[in-house]
Write a structure and sequence with these properties.
Largest sheet: 7 strands, parallel
Number of domains: 1
Distance between the termini: 71 Å
Radius of gyration: 19 Å
Strand order of the largest sheet: 3-2-1-4-5-6-9
Structural class: alpha/beta
Strand content: 5-15%
Number of helices: 10
Helix content: 40-55%
Number of strands: 9
């Protein structure tokens, strides 16, 4: 069996541009066949043709709007039904950065549909198959705005906080199995998501924006290192360890069954 066949098929959502397009390139370079998902069929096929020519891998495309129930069902079925799938990168995401009162109902719903609903259903489909065969890798792309909220990111941060909590729970579920689950939390990255969100990259502080290639390469390096959480721009890994440790300590402190003393004193 060839190395390529052993690696299996990698699914990448949001693969026509940005981080998804780079993930597709890097995974094809590693020898994965690909199933690429995005809304624009023409852009997807351009990406696919270039990867076939460059790496000689098999690349399938599936044009779908993950906010549309019928399209999401098609993609979910494709992921669940293909036994060659060994890796899923849930990269597709949408963002509107604005105060809640200045966000339309359609913009709000789109973030919920893509960032939460689609990611959850695709994770469910992939993990069900992975757990049945005892191997596979799920990569969920969250955001540092899932652990910190700005005045203009309440909805987006809420969706990415879900991604973080959901993915951390999945990691606990698959512990001790052959299935791997990685949570990636990028900070500001130079992709077209910023322009679409309403905040141009040019408005961000100089030196705070990572190039998309660097972000994906760091995330894949973190996956190779076995990291449960990868924050591509955080140099001090001890910060993340303290953060997760404090969260666990706080949870433990909540398990007393009695009101805290300061509330009894106030009564």
């Amino acid at each position: 069996m060839s190395e390529q066949a052993t690696l299996g098929t990698a699914v990448v959502t949001g693969a026509s541009a940005g981080l998804g397009k780079i993930y597709a390139d890097r995974l094809a370079r590693r020898g994965h066949d690909l199933l690429l998902v995005a809304r624009r069929a023409d852009l997807l096929e351009e990406v696919a043709a270039a990867l076939r020519a460059r790496y000689g891998v098999k690349v399938q495309t599936l044009a779908a709007d993950l906010a549309a129930p019928a399209d999401l069902e098609r993609v979910t079925h494709a992921v669940a039904a293909d036994p060659s799938i060994a890796l899923l990168v849930n990269n597709a995401g949408v963002s509107t950065l604005a105060p809640v009162a200045q966000t339309t109902g359609a913009q709000l719903q789109n973030m919920l549909d893509v960032n939460i609903n689609a990611l959850t259903h695709l994770s469910h489909a992939a993990l069900t198959a992975f757990k049945a065969k005892g191997q596979g890798t799920l990569v969920n792309i969250g955001s540092v705005l899932g652990v910190h909220t700005l005045p203009i990111s309440s909805i987006y941060s809420g969706t990415k906080a879900f991604v973080a909590a959901f993915t951390r729970g999945l990691q606990e579920e698959v512990a001790g199995t052959g299935v791997k689950v990685q949570l990636v939390l990028p900070a500001a990255t130079a992709t077209d998501l910023w322009e679409l969100s309403g905040v141009p990259v040019s408005a961000l502080a100089e030196g705070t924006v990572m190039q998309a290639d660097d972000c994906v390469d760091a995330a894949l390096a973190g996956l190779d290192l076995g990291e449960a959480i990868t924050m591509p721009s955080v140099n001090d890994a001890a910060l993340l360890a303290r953060f997760t440790g404090a969260s666990l300590e706080l949870f433990g402190a909540s398990q007393s069954g009695k009101p805290a003393a300061r509330y009894l004193a106030a009564a």
